[in-house]
Amino acid sequence: MKKIFSLLVLMITFLGASKVFAQTVKTETFKVYGNCNMCKKRIEKAVVADGITKADWNVDTKVMTVSYDPTKISNDAIQKKVAGAGHDTEKEKASDSIYAKLPGCCRYDRNGGAIAPTHDHHR
């Protein structure tokens, strides 16, 4: 009986501890402005950070889907990282100096539209 009780206490302790250490992953979406696959690469690379488990930017919809641990990083911090790479988000605007360094095909209308990319620099 004493062994069963000890085993039961051990199992309850283990289960309780595993819940404490379980990570809560949050998945959110937000708008990010850009035009092409070069933008996609830059945007997704910008958010490689501790706490981010997944980042995917859709070129057609301009929507970023990101999964992250909110105890390590916030949505606002993620959007600041994207803006730091030259791409405006729904909450953060990239600085003019960083935006100006983007290749021509990656420059978008900063009022929300796309500028027709030329891709001349790829030749």
From TrEMBL:
Residues 1-22 form the signal peptide. Residues 25-90 form the HMA domain. The keyword Protein biosynthesis does not apply. GO terms for molecular function: metal ion binding. Keywords: Signal. SUPFAM superfamilies: HMA, heavy metal-associated domain. The keyword Signal applies. This is Copper chaperone CopZ. It comes from Chitinophaga sancti.
